[in-house]
C-alpha cells in the first residue's frame, strides 16, 4: 500500500523555468502550475547538496557556490547523493512570478529525519532536532504541517534545508519530499483531510465498541462461540482503522512504520477471521482442511510481513490480492450453501462479503488506481465507513439468529450511536476552540508585528544618530591630527638635531597610524550605511601590487623573511577603484608580514578558473603562526582579534580584515581564509573585473594643470608686505589657526577670523585676494559663508578654499554648489595647500589681465560672471552720469557704488587691474575717442565734454593712452 501511495506522490511533477542567477539555476514557481491540489511537488527540481556540516559562519549564508547538484531529494539508501553520511545541507534557488509576489504561500516537507529550514539565510521552521549521530538526532515526520512563506519580489531566493537521517526507517526513503503551494487553499485541503481522518478514527471507535459488545455477549453466553469470532473480526477492523489513522497523523517515523506494518498483518488476520465466520455460519464448525489451509496461508504472509518489519526489507509484489480473491471466493461458496438452505438474512452476509471484497480491491489495495493522491483521505474514509458494512450486516444477521439478545444488541447499538454523536459534538467543540485559538494567535501576531515595526523605527533612528556621531567625531579627531602631523613634518624638515628628528618621527608615525584607524572606522560606517561609492578608473593591477610590495622591502629585510610575487599577467588593466584596491592589498599584505617571523610570504595573481566571466584570484600565503581552527569563522568580524590578550606580540584593532571583507564584497568579490595553527595562513580573494584600455603610466605628485608648486626651501628675500597677496584665514580652532597663519606668513599677508560671522565682516571690509575657511564653525558654517560672499558684489570675485575634515562626496558637491573654488580635506599637506593657493591666485591674475585688456565699457557681451558684469555696468553708469564733471573723483565714485574707497580700489584692482582714478580717466578718454570719430565737436569742445580742465591736458592724456594725438582721429 505505501509503495503505491508514494508512487502516486512521485508522479505529481511540476514544471519550473530554470534561469542562471549568480552561477546557480533558479526554479520559477508559477501560480498556474499549482493545479487542483493548489501546490506543486518540489523535490525533483534542481537542488544543490553539501555533505556534512557547514562552518557556523556559513550556515546563514545566501549561497550554494561549490555545492553538488542534485535532481531528486526523496532518495533512498541505494541512490543517496555522493558524500551522504546521514547529515548534510540541501539548497534550491527559486523565484515566483508576479502573481505570487507578496502572497502567503505554504511550504511542506515530509521526511523520516530532522530538518532546519532557511529562506535567504533566515530560519523559517523545521521539524525534529538535527544531529550528527543517532543519539544526537530527534526524528520527526510532519507532512501535514505548513510553514508560511512570502516572497516580496520576483528575484531569486534560496531555500536551504539542514537535514539529518541516521535512522532509515524506510530503506527507500532516506531523503525528503517538499511541496510549495497556496497557503489558504492547501490549509483548507489539509483541514478537510484531517476531518476525514478524525471520522476514520470515529469509525474505528465504533468498530471497537461493536467488537467489545459481542465479546461481552460471548462472555455472558460462552456457548455462542460465533460471538467470539465475530468480536475478534470486528476488533481487528477497528485496530486496523486506528493503525491507518496513526500512520497518517503521527509525527514519529518509527511509529508510522510500525503502524503500516501492523495494517499489513491486520489484513491477513482479518481475511482469516472473515473466512472462519463464514465457515461457522455455513457448517456450524470450521472444516479441518479449510482451517489448516487458510491458517497456513495467513501464517506465511504474517511471518513474511513480520520479517520485513524487523529487518526493514524493501517492499515487493506479494500477490496478496490474488490470494485474497481466491479465499473470498471460497467464502462465497459457504454463502451459496446458506442460500440453498434458505436461511433468513443470508443476503445481509452476502452484502457484507461483497462490500469487503469491493473495498479491498477498489479502496484499500486500489488495484485499478482509481484514486489520485489528492483524494487519498477520501479513499481511506470510504474504506473506513465501508468496513462497517460487513460487521453491521453480521450484527443484523446475528440479531435475527439470536432473538434472545436482540434487545441488548439494540441498546448497545444505540449506545454506539450516542458515542458517535458525542464524538461529533466534541469534534465540533474542538474546532470551535481551534478557531478561537487561531484568532487569538492572529491578534498576537499583529501585536508582535507592530512591536517589531516600532523597534525597526527605533533602530533606524539610532542608525541616523550613529551616522551623525561619526560625521562630527571626524572633525574633532582630524583637527588635532592636523596640528600633530604638519608641525611634525616641519620639525623633521627644518631641524638637524638627531634626537629631535627621531622623537618627531615617532610622533608623526603614531599620528599617521591614528589617522588610518580613524579612516578605517569611517569606512566601516559608510559601508554599514551603504554610502560607500565605487569610483572606477583604468589601473594596472599588477603594477599596483608591485608598488605595495616594494613599500615593504625594508620590513622584509629587517625580519629576515622572503617576499615573492607571481602573476600570470605582465600587465592587467582593469576598471577599478584604486583607493579601495589599495586598502585591500595593504591590509592583507601587512597582516601576512605582521604575523610571519620566519619563512616566506607568497603572493599569486592568476585567472579565476571557475568563473564564467572575467575574474582574478589573488592568493596571499604566509608561513606565520596561523590561526586556530575555532577562530577562523570570526576573523572577519568587526573588532575581533584572534589573540586578544595583553601579551600579544602584534598590534591591531580588529577592523582591518572587516573593512577588507566589506570592500571586497562591495566590488562583488569573495574573500576566504584557510589556516593551520603554527604552519600557514592563506587568504584567497576572488573578484570579477571589467577589462580597461591601458592608460598613460602614472607620475608621482601629479598636480592640476596650472598649479605652481611653492618653493618651501627658497632663500630669496621676502617681498615687501604691500606686494604680498592678502589672505583671510577663518578657523574656529585656535591652535590650527595659529599653525596655518605661521605657514602662510612668509608668502602672504594674513588676516585671521575666529568664526564665520567675523570672517564675513573682515572679507567685506578688507576684500582680500584669497579666503581659506573651515567648514564646521559656530554660528555660520563654511557653506553659508561661501554663499554670502559669492553673492556680495564686494567679494564675489574672491577665490575661496574650504578646509575641513568632512571629505565625503556629498560634502564636496555641496561646497562647490555654494561657489567654493577648492575643497581641501584635513589633515592637509602643506605643499598641496600652497599649490592650491598659488593656482587660484594665478588664475585670478590671468583673468584680471584678460579683462584689463578688453573693451569692457562698450562691449555688449562680456565673458565675466553675471555679478561682475553687473558691477562693471554700474561703475560705467556712475562714471557716465558725471562724465563732464572735472572734479568727479574716486571718492565720489566709491560713494555712488556704496563702497569705501579701499573696497572699491581692491575690487577693481582684483577684477580688472585698474584703480578707480585710472578707470575714470580711461572711460573719459574712450568716450572722447568715440566723439572724435563721430566728429561731434572740436578737440577743445570734446575735452570739456569729458571733464578735462584744458585742451592741452586732454591732448597729453589722450596721446599717452592711445599713442597718437587727438587730431589724428579727427582727421581720419
TrEMBL record:
Highest taxon listed in the record's lineage: Bacteria
Keyword vocabulary terms for this entry: ATP-binding, Coiled coil, DNA-binding, Membrane, Nucleotide-binding, Phosphoprotein, Signal, Transcription, Transcription regulation, Transmembrane, Transmembrane helix
Entries under InterPro entries matching the protein: CheY-like_superfamily, HATPase_C_sf, HATPase_dom, His_kinase_dom, HisK_dim/P_dom, HisK_dim/P_sf, Homeodomain-like_sf, HTH_AraC
Signal sequence, renumbered to the chain: 1-23
Record PTM 4-aspartylphosphate, positions in chain: 774
GO molecular function, one term: ATP binding
Domain Response regulatory: 726-841
Domain HTH araC/xylS-type: 873-972
Coiled coil: 399-462
Alphabetical list of SMART domains matching this protein: HATPase_c (SM00387), HisKA (SM00388), HTH_ARAC (SM00342), REC (SM00448)
CDD domains reported for this sequence: HisKA (cd00082), REC_OmpR (cd17574)
Matching PROSITE patterns: HIS_KIN, HTH_ARAC_FAMILY_1, HTH_ARAC_FAMILY_2, PROKAR_LIPOPROTEIN, RESPONSE_REGULATORY
E.C. numbers: 2.7.13.3
Catalysed reaction equations from the record: ATP + protein L-histidine = ADP + protein N-phospho-L-histidine
Limits of the Histidine kinase domain: 472-691
SUPFAM superfamilies: ATPase domain of HSP90 chaperone/DNA topoisomerase II/histidine kinase, CheY-like, Homeodomain-like, Homodimeric domain of signal transducing histidine kinase
PANTHER family assigned to the protein according to its UniProt record, in alphabetical order: HYBRID SIGNAL TRANSDUCTION HISTIDINE KINASE C, TWO-COMPONENT HISTIDINE KINASE
Protein name in UniProt: histidine kinase
Organism: Mucilaginibacter angelicae
